[in-house]
Amino acid sequence: LNPLFQAMESEISAAFDSGEPEDILSRAFKLTVTREDICTLQPLGWLNDRIMNFYMGLLVERSKKEGYPAVYAFNTFFYSKLSSTSHKGVKKWTKGVDIFEHDVILVPIHLRIHWTLLVVDLREKTIKYFDSLGQKGDHICKTVLKYLEEESREKRNIELTASEWTLHSMGTEEIPQQNNGSDCGVFVCKFADFISRDKPIIFTPEHMPYFRRKMVWEIIHQQLL
Fold first, then answer.
1. Which residues are catalytic?
2. Tens of pLDDT, residues 129-184
3. Once rounded to an integer, what is the mean pLDDT over residues 200-212?
4. Bridge partners (DSSP) listed for residue 31
5. Beta strands 31-34; 24-28: pairing state
6. How many CB atoms sit inside 10 A of residue 40's CB?
7. CA 20 to 30 Å from 189, out of 72, 88, 116, 118?
8. How far apart are the first and last CA of the chain?
9. pTM, two decimal places
10. For residue 62, how many C-alpha atoms fall within 13 Å in the half-sphere facing its CB?
């Protein structure tokens, strides 16, 4: 092990093991991450909203650098609010923001006991649904397309042509699938990571323990490796 990696490892272990649950380990994007939150990244831990939203914030931050697609990320409460209230319930969420100026929109979705990801690619006019348990989300894609139509009409006075858009739930042969009941949040974060770099999704379930530890370091340092 090189010294840098050893230093990182001891830091990650300390984040899990020393101190109180309420200790604050990172603060950014109007979010505070405590040791208790970080501990959801332990093996087989269930990632919470705070970890998910913080990681999305890191992806958006990175996308401001040259060479990356421009990324906008909704927070994890957006879709449940949209699906229960329609566009008017979330109209204020994009106050002062034109989401259509971005290349990629990430929508992390919390389905009671499962995390999934919806990705809007405004360059390609595609809406894709990523589920590491292989379930279809065609109705979710339709709900978000309807939202985009209303958002475009309201904010830009431009009609989107729904027929120009491709909606697709990714199949189990297209994206890696989790092999336990707890890695869905990590899968969502890594789907979003690869997509927001325009990279093919080539990781496997075997990478999850490594990704979890890496995410601890990235969140504490507010910097993606």
1. 114, 131, 184
2. 999 999 999 999 999 999 999 999 998 999 999 999 999 999 999 999 999 999 99
3. 94
4. 28
5. antiparallel
6. 16
7. 88
8. 17
9. 0.93
10. 19
| pLDDT, position 1 | 53
CATH code, 3-221: 3.40.395.10
Closest by CA to 114, choosing from 176, 187, 190, is: 187
CB atoms inside a 10 Å sphere around CB 55: 26
Q: Which residues contact 26 (CB under 8 A, 6 or more apart)?
A: 32, 33, 54, 219, 220, 222
pLDDT band at 193 (very low <50, low <70, confident <90, very high): very high
3-state secondary structure the chain: CCHHHHHHHHHHHHHHHCCCCCCEEEEECCEEEEHHHHHHHCCCCCCCHHHHHHHHHHHHHHCCCCCCCCEEECCCCHHHHHHHHCHHHHHHHHCCCCHHHCCEEEEEEECCCCEEEEEEECCCCEEEEECCCCCCCHHHHHHHHHHHHHHHHHHHCCCCCHHHCEEEECCCCCCCCCCCCCCHHHHHHHHHHHHCCCCCCCCCHHHHHHHHHHHHHHHHHCCCC
